[in-house]
Amino acid sequence: MITTIVVLYVAKMSKAVQFQDFDRSILLKIFPLPLLYVGNHITGLASTKKLSLPMFTVLRKFTILMTMVLEVHILRKTFSKGLIYSVGAIVFGAMVATSSDLAFDVEAYTFILLNDAFTAASGVYTKKKLGVEGLGKYGVLFYNALIIVIPTFLASAFTGDLHKVVTVITCTFSMCLCPKLVPSLPDHRVCFDLQAVTFQDWSKVTFMFCFLMSCIMGFVLMYSIVLCSYYNSALTTAVVGAVKNVAVAYIGIFVGGDYMFSWTNFIGLSICMSGGLVYSYLTFNNKSSESNTKETQEMKIHISEDSSKKFSNN
């Protein structure tokens, strides 16, 4: 979030990007995106902790169905039968896969379904807010992150995590600059109880470079999602994310050690992925046909204009 704020603020100051300056209307324009973003992350972390990676990937497919329903009711969109059938195949495959889940956990399934709902609502409202005057792609990213940062710091201070982070940073820099001063710090016992302080790679340039790059790539990921929603639909963004998880689902079967293999589950996974690929094919095929139709219409207009000019000259 901080990386997003810094990058976009510097870009705005250098006039590389443009979006509305902050005023009272921003809160109304951006609402409820920050709340949906926070709910998405909290439920996502909770469900990831309790579910195996393949099952987490499969249950996330219900986001696609929820996104389609929300787009119909909020954005007033309509979908072709082929797209509806492909989404139905994705959801059916998810139901087949979860029917053989031997590690069923009510709490985990509750969290993952809540996470699906938050993700679907966040995607649909992102698409809706992109059309709001004064925001655009960069305004949605910047003000969403800016509003979220404040309650995040407050929550960290309330839980004591902010104090731990400050202590870790203080002790780490103290050990790097002058190790003899560390015992004189008031919280040095807390420092050495924390594993983050004893982590040896804090002083390595390679680790710090990778750490900073992970922050930057987090911004790139968020920007890519918003950009995909800007040029496509929230449903397409959700399906593309599901297709991306093809490798994650199948690799998770062999890596991680917490996956219980069954043929029912494996067949359900395959149905999910097949439905996602069909949806992608239908979506991009429709777009190419629409662009060809527009080109032919433009050619007809030019031809009719040229013929009318010739007729008037004669």
TrEMBL record:
It is found in: Membrane. Keywords: Membrane, Transmembrane, Transmembrane helix. It comes from the Eukaryota. It is a multi-pass membrane protein. The chain crosses the membrane at residues 51-70, 82-102, 108-126, 138-158, 205-227, 234-255, 261-282. One of its GO terms (cellular component) is membrane. PANTHER family: SOLUTE CARRIER FAMILY 35. This is Solute carrier family 35 member D2. It comes from Amphiprion percula.
